[in-house]
């Protein structure tokens, strides 16, 4: 069902208020790795509004390698995130980690994110097949393109056709970067599926100084959008500060992304 053989026309998602994801628009989503506080959200939302970015990312349930790391503000954080986002005309993409969260999160999110560690959580995918909200599925940490498409097929066949695929880097033998951003996946996915394809250069390379160039490369490779991490003070971020852009870097990237997209 997610194949181009089944549907030739590219899928375009409408989040409302003029926010679209898919062919014909460059989708930009930015924000912190983790939602931390009201002040943090206010500052980033102001930055997004100034730069006409309509979607904010930010996790309230964080999958952390160590149980001692910051694991997110949970539902209280999400409710505040939702309230502030609505005030600023911003849409929310945030990670759902387990089936039991789908229902409680439902009214407070615009796009459910399935994280790389949950790409093959088939119970979660089944549950998301039954909701009427878009789902962005990240490629698994060691997941193939085919496996990503199969995960999408779970949600689609469950009845939810509002899907976005996200290339966020895979684990390879290379240790010089956090992950290996597989830009090959972009044209391959675009050919194989009618679904929108988004690139996450932040997790893809994991090194702040290189994030912007990889984002631009993602757009040139044919991506329908970019999702990246930004924070007023990346050095103080509760998670992933080393790959997070500050507002000056983020504003410059947004300008360049729009230029590059116009060249395509
Ligand atoms: C994130 O978006 O902050 C995140 C945890 O991403 P991933 O699942 O790709 O590691
Ligand atoms: Mn992160």
TrEMBL record:
It comes from the Bacteria. GO terms for molecular function: 3-deoxy-7-phosphoheptulonate synthase activity. The lineage of its organism: Bacteria, Pseudomonadati, Bacteroidota, Cytophagia, Cytophagales. Residues 14-253 form the DAHP synthetase I/KDSA domain. This is 3-deoxy-7-phosphoheptulonate synthase. Keywords: Transferase. It is an enzyme of class 2 (transferase). Its EC number is 2.5.1.54.
């Amino acid at each position: 069902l997610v194949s181009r053989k089944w549907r030739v026309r590219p899928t375009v998602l409408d989040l409302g208020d003029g926010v679209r994801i898919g062919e014909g628009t460059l989708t930009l989503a930015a924000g912190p790795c983790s939602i931390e506080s009201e002040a943090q959200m206010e500052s980033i939302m102001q930055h997004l509004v100034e730069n006409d970015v309509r979607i904010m990312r930010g996790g309230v349930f964080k999958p952390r390698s160590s149980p001692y790391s910051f694991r997110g503000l949970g539902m209280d954080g999400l409710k505040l995130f939702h309230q502030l986002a609505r005030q600023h005309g911003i849409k929310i993409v945030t990670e759902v980690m387990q089936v039991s969260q789908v229902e409680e999160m439902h009214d407070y999110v615009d796009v459910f994110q399935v994280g790389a560690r949950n790409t093959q959580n088939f119970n979660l995918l089944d549950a998301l097949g039954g909701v009427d909200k878009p789902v962005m599925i990240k490629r698994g940490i060691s997941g193939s393109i085919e496996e990503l498409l199969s995960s999408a097929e779970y949600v689609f066949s469950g009845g939810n056709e509002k899907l976005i695929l996200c290339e966020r880097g895979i684990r390879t033998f290379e240790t010089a970067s956090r992950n290996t951003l597989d830009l090959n996946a972009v044209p391959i996915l675009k050919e194989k599926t009618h679904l929108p394809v988004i690139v996450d250069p932040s997790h893809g390379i994991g090194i702040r100084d290189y994030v912007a160039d990889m984002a631009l490369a993602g757009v040139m490779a044919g991506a329908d959008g970019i999702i990246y991490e930004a924070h007023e003070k990346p050095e103080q971020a509760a998670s992933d500060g080393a790959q997070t852009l500050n507002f000056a870097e983020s504003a410059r990237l947004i300008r360049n992304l729009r230029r590059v997209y116009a060249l395509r």
